[in-house]
Design brief:
Layout: E1 5-9, E2 15-26, E3 29-36, E4 45-51, E5 57-61, H1 65-80
Antiparallel strand pairs: 1-2, 2-3, 3-4, 4-5
InterPro entries: UPF0473
């Protein structure tokens, strides 16, 4: 199975390669969970998948705490089958 990877620039302008580890849906909104390819890192990032005016996917980092927690809960449910 082929990895879905994406490249981003961090705050310092360094290129960071992230792998898509899950697609999660909350209230009909799609989110993408991305993790660094560095296996020593446990960081994961949440991006909302929006559509631009031409219908192309556009990734926007989730910065709202409430939205982030909803996605985290759904991702945890996807992984472990837990419902709180």
């Amino acid at each position: 199975m082929e990895r879905e990877t994406m490249k981003f620039r961090d705050e310092e302008g360094n290129v960071v390669e992230l792998e898509a580890v899950a697609r999660v849906y909350v209230e009909e909104q799609e989110y993408l969970i991305l993790a660094p390819l560095d296996e020593n890192s446990e960081d994961e990032f949440v991006f909302r998948v929006d559509k631009d005016s031409e219908g192309k996917e556009e990734l926007n980092a989730v910065e709202d705490d409430v939205e982030f927690l909803k996605v985290k809960k759904e991702y945890k449910n996807l992984l472990y089958g837990e419902v709180e």
